[in-house]
Write a structure and sequence with these properties.
It comes from Flavobacterium frigidimaris. The chain is mainly α. It has 12 helices and no strands. About 35% of the residues are buried.
Length: about 270
């Protein structure tokens, strides 16, 4: 059992799980806009997520805090390097405009992690903006990039789907922030710190309304049923979220929501 727990912890700590969630959202985008499977685009996002998330999670740990590097962190560093090489490989299989936009998303991620401005903390520590930066990066990587690479014009449907994707990620992050309430620095002014856990849950429930409405606008019974399942699933995760929950509640189960969405689209 301990061995299996170590495998699960490595799977989560190395950002493979969150990368699979991003990959799943790319596949959902392919479905929504009837895009033929684009391996370069999907795997670019998958490996890019591993690199980006591991950079965000472990940069300060190694560069600033000078923590000793254990065996797991060394393996994660090797995995991240291999992922970086693969990101470079798939990058050159994307269209030029996609490459330019992806660099912009990378710069936002770097801004989120590194203090570019003198006497200022990185964007991750700017009060109240963390949740918006993360949600926008996810929308950019999992929805905007695939459409640009497929040369699909930005119609009203595109902007509606952007709202839906932003709401999904925003709500998922709200659950994370509820569980991290006891550990987050008060100056971050996360949503639960600002308005409290109860109002944060009400906000999450309210945001699921536009998510559901977008499903109705699709006029597709299959997608409508799946969106209803998604709304119920998200409501349950919000309802039972509290700061005393295990880390696996968010790092595994909540981050699995996009994967469930993709699997439902594929097999239901």
């Amino acid at each position: 059992m301990k061995f299996l727990k170590r495998i699960l912890d490595f799977y989560l700590n190395s950002s493979i799980h969150v990368a699979l969630s991003c990959y799943a959202l790319v596949r959902v985008t392919f479905h929504m806009f009837h895009i033929q499977y684009d391996e370069a685009m999907a795997l670019f996002v998958f490996f890019g997520t591993i690199v980006g998330y591991n950079f965000v999670k472990y940069d300060a740990l190694v560069r600033v805090k000078k923590k000793p590097i254990g065996i797991q962190l060394k393996i994660i560093a090797v995995l991240s390097f291999i992922s970086l090489v693969l990101v470079g490989y798939y990058f050159f299989h994307l269209k030029r405009i996609t490459q330019i936009v992806s660099v912009g998303i990378f710069l936002i991620t770097a801004l989120y992690t590194l203090p570019f401005f003198p006497n200022r903390k990185n964007a991750r520590n700017w009060a109240g903006v963390k949740i918006y930066i993360v949600a926008l990066c996810w929308v950019g990587a999992t929805l905007v990039l695939p459409l640009i690479n497929a040369e699909i014009p930005f119609t009203a449907n595109f902007f509606i789907k952007c709202i839906q994707r932003f709401v999904l990620v925003f709500v998922l992050i709200l659950v994370f922030e509820i569980l991290d309430l006891a550990n987050d620095d008060p100056h971050l002014q996360t949503v639960p710190q600002t308005i409290g856990v109860k109002k944060t849950k009400i906000l999450g429930f309210s945001l699921l309304v536009p998510f559901w409405v977008v499903g109705i606008l699709s006029f597709d019974l299959h997608d409508l049923i799946i969106n209803l399942i998604m709304v119920v699933m998200l409501m349950l995760f919000i309802l039972f979220a509290n700061p005393n929950r295990s880390k696996y509640y968010t790092s595994f189960w909540v981050e699995s929501v996009p994967i469930f969405w993709w699997l439902m689209i594929e097999f239901l």
